[in-house]
Structure formats: C-alpha cells, structure tokens
UniProtKB/TrEMBL annotation:
Domain of life of the organism encoding this protein: Bacteria
Originating organism: Dyadobacter psychrophilus
Pfam family, one: SurA_N_2
Membrane topology: Single-pass type II membrane protein
InterPro entries: PPIase_dom_sf (IPR046357), PPIase_PpiC (IPR000297), PPIase_PpiC_CS (IPR023058), PpiD_chaperone (IPR052029), Trigger_fact/SurA_dom_sf (IPR027304)
Gene3D superfamilies: 3.10.50.40
Lineage: Bacteria, Pseudomonadati, Bacteroidota, Cytophagia, Cytophagales
Gene Ontology MF, one: peptidyl-prolyl cis-trans isomerase activity
Entry GO terms, CC: plasma membrane
Protein name: Periplasmic chaperone PpiD
Length: 705
C-alpha cells in the first residue's frame, strides 16, 4: 500500500529536516534572490492574490515543506526543474487557499466530518484512498487496511500523524472543488433555439460558386504601412491586444565544442574498448558498463539510427564494427545475429480528417474532404505539405504526418494498425481508413518487420576538455568586453563571420528557457533587471554547451501596450486591410458572371465551386474555413450573388447555386447534448480562468527565483 509505505518512511523525518536545513544553509539559492531578505532587497512580497499579499517567507516555508516531503520520499535532492515545479505547486496552493476558498465560502460549500469519514472508509471512497490502500499486486482495495491504519494512527510518530492530517486536508479541498465545479456544470443550459441553430448549421447543405482574391495575391512590398496607421488600428482594437511584461533580446553564442585533440583522445579510447568488446565473455555486460548512453541489446530496424540500419546489412555474427560517428558520439557494435520477434514494427505517416462525435452529415462532409485530399495525393500532390496544412493531428502534422515507428501491439487504433501492417511495400494506401477519430490517409514509410537484431553497443560521447572550455570562454569574454552598445554589438558581429545573431522575442519574466537554450534563467533575470536598459550588452552567461552574450532590444509593459509590442501582427492586419480596400475598389461595379469578373480583374482572382457543404463544417478549396464567406453565402437566395466583401483571408463575391434546407424535426435533444457536453468538457478550465481573473493575481516570483 503506497501511502502507508510512504507515511512509515517519514519516521526519520527529523534527520531529513536537519540534513536539508544544512544543505539550504550552504547553497541557499532560493533565499539569495535580489529581492530576498538575505539579498538586501526591501520588497518581501512575492505576489498578490485577491488583494492579499504573499510574503516571501510564507511562500518559501511552503516550498520547503513540499521539498522536504519530496526528498524524504525519493531519497535524493531535487534538480532545478523539479524545484521550479514545486514552486508552481506552492503558488497554486496559495491560489486555492485564497481565491478559490473565497468562492467556496460565499456559496457556503463545505465538506463535513461525516463526508470525510465516508470518503476515507465509507461507501463513497475517494480515488486517492482507493489508490493508496489497494494491493499493488492485485489492485484490489482493502477497506480493513484503512480502518486498522486509523486505529493505530495515534501510536505512530508525530510526523506521520501530521502527514495524515495534511492528506485529509487535501481530500477536503479536492471534494470541495469537485462540488463547486459540478454545481457549475449542472447549471449549464442550452436553450432550444441554440440547439435548433446548431442543427440547421450542421444539416442545411449548399452548393456555391464564388470568386476569391486572396490577400497573398498582392505582393507585400507594394503596400506601405505607416506608424500612424498602426497606432489607429491598435487604438480601435485595444481589447484584442492584452499587454504582458516581456523582454526581447538578440544574442550570439560561443559553443563549447570538442576540439580535435578531444576527438582524437576519445577515438583512441573507443578503439581500445572495441578490442575489449570483441573478447568479452559477457559482451552485453561489458557494453553496459562502458557506454555513456544506455542502449538496448535487442534492436528492431525501427529503433536503429539510419546509419546503423544501413550498416547492419553487412554485419556477420560475432564481428565487431565501428567506430561510427553520429554527432559528438562514437559507436561500436558487436553483432550477435537475429531472431524473430513476436511483435512487428512499421513506420507510417497519416493525414487525419477528424469526425469523432459528429453527426452523420458532418461525417459525410469529413469523408468528402478526405477523399478530395487522397485524390490530390494520388494525382501527385505532396503528402507532407498536405499533412502540414490539413491534418487534424497537430503533433504529426508538424512532421509532415510522420508517426515514426510503432508496433502492432495496440499502440494504434485497430483499423489503422490493420491497414499499416497488412501493407507489404512502402507507399500510399489507396483508400481511406476510418477509425473512431475520423478518416485517415496513410502512407507507409517502412513496411512491417518482426526481425530483432542482437547488438551489444557502446556509445562514447566526446566531452570538451577544460582547455577547450577555457578557450570558448576567452572568446566570449573578449567579445563582451569590447562591445557595450547595440551598435558596437552589430559591428563586431559583422566583422566575425563565425558569429550568428539569434532573436528571442517577447520573453516572459517567468521563462526558464530561451529558444533552444536550456536553463536560461540568468539571462532572463538580467533582461528584467530595473537597471538593464535598451541596447545594453550583457555579461557572459554560461550553459552546459555554450557561452552567451546578449543585447536587450525591446521591453513591453502589461499596463502600457504599444505598437512596438505587436508590430508584426499589427502590420499584417493593417496591410491586409489596405489590400482588401484595393481589391474591393478594383472589383466594385464589375458586371457579368463570376468568370467574366475574374477575367476583368486579372491575375490573382480565382473562381471555384463548393458542393454540398454545411455552415458548420464548410471548407472552401483555396480559402479554407472562412465563416464570414459561408455566412454570406447561406444568407443568399438560390441564383443570387453577393456584393464584394472582405473575408478572413481575402475578398469574395459569393453566389448560391442551390440550397437544401434542414428538414424540420421535433426533438433537438441530440444537439442540446452535443453543445452541453462541449461546454462541460471545458468547465474546469473556464472556472479556473474566471477565478484567477477575478482574483487579480500578481505573480512576482520571478523577482526572487
């Protein structure tokens, strides 16, 4: 029973507290921030929630409590990322204690002692209790174990009693919050009119013909946007652009890369290891002890690097091969032959057109869209480009639809898995595959294989020597000492072709990483210091892999939104407005049918058709989903053309060819349920956002950590 074991482990908590206190005394980083008491600052307020100040001492005490529990249970010290996570937990607990509790008290929500007993040992056991007092082997809950534990609680050390008290407190808070959210969920009401509107939007069908002139058909460089226009647009749309405290920097890096001598030394070492691997009686143990990287002894083609996948074709059992270099790591392999695995691997890409939890008409529209994309690919269109722009699976879409390697053990839904693992050659599967998520267009990259290769592998990474690190620092320090302004920074970069300037825009004060730079907290704190001025150059910052010199190029203030804070976004908006005006002026007054108007307009005007689409899911071929255009079209009468109007991504003239109205129905329950479930699924998020906004939270932790 996990909880009992954890509670018993705390019998030595006094020793742990003393040890941690000594560590804190020695390192004390959290107490040495610029605004901390030890750091000499005067402001000891780490934040404000619903008008209540949170003192750094109170906040740090809660963090230390979380830290002590974590380290006592894990038996090790926290790393910086774990400590940052505990600070977030401590802050969120203050939010619950202050902002949420105010809401609970106003509504009279409580959890009585009787309810708590019922949650712990009654008829409605809390999931946390079920998890803590279940047999780890069988998973069966043992209520007697709870009862016996509570009977003996007063005989346990004070620390364990306190731990249980805190646990019960968390159960009360969890149940109170659940009551609050459930109350709001039950108050959700979708009127008949809204359900009917949703039904009509999903079921009414239209066939359209339209003229579309996209914004991108007008070259950006032909449109001049003035600061006055940007100011006017921001003033008119102030509510759309909420200010935040951010900083923007430019920076150069001085990588700490292994020198030739470092590489040569490692190359000699790995050649010596290759001789040892060849003669080792237990080659897997030898490889495990000497490798910098944990590597499996049995590999499928799917788990191999591209280089090894090609090389293994030439391996002979018993042979040692390499070294092969991949990045800064050398690999050697001892090949032990192959065997047949019970599980096969394959690699594939897909484009998902989502159709889960949709009506029959919406599914039909999704199928039509998917069939159109499949037809484009079969006609020669680029699969990866279409995946990036049309797939409803955002993670794989970023990789051109690639799902990497997976096995036929239930990793993928059954219809998808069966389609991929029935393919005998790479290439496009020439049919749609339907699953509970929608319609998949699948390209098999690497067909199924169930061959396992036994390979004892050693990977040794080249580490830069201290001399190499010192040389990189010398270059960075020399650069930082010779440039003190943005102008000097730019001139020095121009002279040194080895340096490349990178940009990091709108960095929030709480950021820990900057682009690909891990642990960039020191750079962020420098940028947010009150005495760091625009165009000022930073000192040298060090990470594991590089030294960094930055220059501060921009600041934004949450309470004072300026054009500079959103210049790119505002410029795009204003430029598109100007384009829309130019396109509209050129189209206005045009007569004839749409092809004639397009011909008169000239290059950039497209005339397209959309067949049997709905208002809810309509997708225009080139314009994509444009609700303004769809709304205009569905408001026309058959045979009627709209005037020229501006849509989301361009200028339109819509013509309604035909329309099939949604038949009248008596019961809209299905659509009420859809809308209710959609709203309820977002309830927790919406409640949290509303409470936090109402509490007017000011989080100033970044000043201290």
């Amino acid at each position: 029973m996990a909880l009992i074991t954890k509670i018993r482990e705390k019998s030595g908590i006094a020793v742990t507290v003393i040890a941690i206190s000594l560590i804190l005394f020695m390192v004390g980083g959290d107490l040495m921030g610029p605004n901390s008491m030890l750091g000499g600052g005067n402001d000891q307020t780490v934040g404000e929630i619903a008008g209540k100040d949170i003192n750094i001492k109170d906040f740090q005490a809660r963090v230390d409590g979380f830290r002590q529990n974590y380290e006592a249970q894990s038996g090790r010290s926290l790393n910086e990322n774990e400590l940052a996570s505990l600070r977030d937990q401590a802050w969120n607990q203050f939010v619950v204690d202050i902002a949420y509790k105010k809401e609970f008290e106003d509504l009279g929500l409580t959890v009585t002692d009787q309810e708590l007993v019922d949650m712990v040992q009654g008829n409605h056991i809390s999931p946390s209790i079920l998890q803590a007092f279940s047999d780890p082997t069988t998973g069966k809950f043992d209520k007697n174990a709870v009862v016996n534990y509570l009977k003996n609680l007063k005989t346990l050390p004070v620390e364990q009693q306190k731990s249980w008290e805190n646990f019960e407190k968390s159960l009360r808070e969890e149940r109170t919050r659940a009551k609050y959210e459930n109350m709001l969920k039950l108050s959700t009401y979708i009127p008949k009119a809204q359900a009917e509107k949703e039904y009509v939007a999903q079921t009414s069908k239209a066939t359209l013909r339209y003229l579309y002139v996209p914004y991108f058909s007008v070259v950006d460089t032909t449109i001049k946007v003035t600061d006055k226009q940007l100011e006017d647009y921001l003033s008119a749309h102030r509510s759309e652009y909420k200010g935040t405290d951010t900083r923007s920097i430019e920076y150069v890096t001085f990588p700490i890369q292994p020198a030739k001598d470092d590489s040569a030394a490692l190359y000699s070492e790995i050649k010596e290891l290759a001789r040892g691997l060849a003669t080792a009686q237990n080659d897997s143990a030898f490889a495990s002890m000497n490798s910098d990287i944990p590597l499996p002894i049995n590999m499928s083609l799917g788990t191999m690097s591209d280089q090894l996948k090609e090389a293994v074709k030439t391996f002979v059992p018993g042979g040692v091969y390499g070294p092969y270099r991949e990045g800064n790591t050398y690999y050697i392999y001892k090949y032990g032959g192959t065997r047949v695995d019970t599980v096969a691997s394959a690699r594939a890409s897909h484009i998902l057109i989502r159709a889960e939890n949709q009506s029959d008409s919406a599914k039909a529209a999704a199928r039509t869209k998917a069939e159109g994309i499949l037809a484009q690919i079969r006609a020669g269109a680029n699969f990866e480009a279409l995946a990036a722009t049309t797939s409803a699976d955002p993670q794989s879409a970023q990789r051109g639809g690639d799902l990497s390697y997976f096995q036929n053990n239930g990793q993928m839904v059954k219809p998808f898995e069966e389609a991929v693992f029935s393919a005998t050659a790479p290439g496009l599967i020439p049919r749609l595959v339907e699953s509970q998520f929608g319609f998949h267009i699948i390209k098999v990259t690497d067909p199924k294989s169930n061959t396992l290769y036994r390979i004892a592998a050693i990977g040794k990474t080249i580490a830069p020597s201290q001399a190499t690190r010192d040389e990189a620092y010398r270059k960075a320090d020399e650069f930082a000492n010779t440039v003190k302004t943005k102008t000097a920074f730019d001139e020095a970069v121009k002279k040194n072709k080895a340096l490349v300037v990178a940009n990091a825009n709108r960095i929030p004060e709480s950021a820990t990483n900057i682009n690909a730079i891990q642990n960039g907290r020191d750079i962020v704190r420098w940028a947010f210091k009150d005495d760091s001025d625009i165009n000022e150059v930073s000192p040298v910052f060090e990470t594991e892999e590089q030294y960094i010199v930055a220059v501060l190029v921009g600041k934004s203030d949450a309470k004072d939104v300026k054009v500079a804070d959103f210049r790119d976004e505002l410029t795009t908006k204003v430029r598109n407005q100007i384009k829309a005006e130019q396109i509209t002026a050129k189209l206005k007054g045009a007569t004839g049918d749409l092809p004639a108007i397009a011909a008169k307009y000239g290059a950039g005007a497209l005339v397209e058709n959309a067949t049997d689409i709905s208002l809810a899911t309509g997708f225009l071929t080139s314009a994509g989903f444009d609700p303004i255009a769809l709304g205009k079209a569905f408001g026309l009468k058959p045979g009627q053309k709209s005037g020229v109007f501006t849509g989301e991504n361009g200028v339109f003239i819509m013509e309604l060819v035909s329309k099939t109205e949604a038949p009248k129905i008596a019961d809209y329950t299905q659509y009420k349920t859809q809308l209710t479930q959609s709203l309820e699924s977002r309830m927790s998020y919406l409640v949290n956002e509303a409470i936090r906004e109402n509490a007017k939270i000011e989080d100033r932790r970044a000043k201290f950590f």
